[in-house]
Design brief:
Helices cover 31% and strands 29% of the residues. Strands 6-7-8-3-9-10 form a six-stranded mixed β-sheet, with helices on both faces. It is globular and about 45 Å long. The relative contact order is 0.21.
């Protein structure tokens, strides 16, 4: 099986505090891989470095066979991400947000396809600030798929949601795998990791333990 993500000796510190202290990962094509650990363990920093949102102090990162540090734009074309905070303009609608995000990519899905896929058709033209927490998270997942990515990053995707909504979103994540996507998921919920992940790495104080 080929690797979608290969990270070697990744290091990132904030002052004297190491957020990634020599992290190495190898994530295989078509699996759901979990980064598990308490809040503040370094999970989000690792994902942001892989995505190119933060610059590592050192280390190697390859995404879909691309050197992501040398060619960040090319790597970004292969990835989608739903990070912890969904921050959009209050009055933008899901349909408008999907069209806007899609405009940044050469290959993209039409908004109507994603609205149907993530159960947002009934809220397509509703202002973002009136959506429920679960609907906002569904929109975040839809935005992560706007460029038809090979690899999807999900940072605490069900955190703070009601149990019924969590269950529905976990079903969506399992469907991503069935559709052929590779998923890198962070969580501090062991039950969630057991339900979703093929393999996990346990992170504590910036290290894989």
């Amino acid at each position: 099986m080929s690797s979608k993500v290969v990270v070697g000796d990744l290091r990132k510190s904030y002052g004297n505090v190491p957020a990634a202290a020599g992290v190495s990962l190898d994530i295989e094509d078509g699996e759901i891989f979990g980064l598990i650990g308490p809040n503040g363990a370094g999970k989000t920093t690792i994902i942001e470095c892989i995505l190119g949102l933060r610059t590592p102090d050192s280390g190697t990162i390859h995404v879909c066979g691309i050197d992501a540090r040398a060619h960040p734009r090319e790597a970004r074309e292969k990835t989608g991400a739903a990070l912890q905070a969904v921050a959009l303009q209050d009055k933008i609608t899901p349909r408008e947000a999907l069209a806007l995000f899609g405009a940044f990519y050469r290959i993209r899905s039409e908004p109507d396809v994603l609205l149907d896929r993530f159960g947002l058709r009934g809220k397509a033209d509703t202002a973002f600030d009136t959506l429920s927490g679960g609907q906002k998270q569904r929109l975040a997942l839809a935005l992560a798929f706007v460029n038809q990515p090979e690899l999807v990053f999900l940072d605490e995707p069900t955190s703070g949601l009601d149990p019924d909504i969590r269950r529905d979103l976990r079903g969506e994540i399992l469907q991503m795998k069935r559709d052929g996507h590779t998923v890198l998921l962070t969580t501090h919920d062991i039950e969630e990791a057991e339900a979703l992940c093929d393999r996990i790495a346990i992170i504590d104080r910036g290290k894989v333990i």
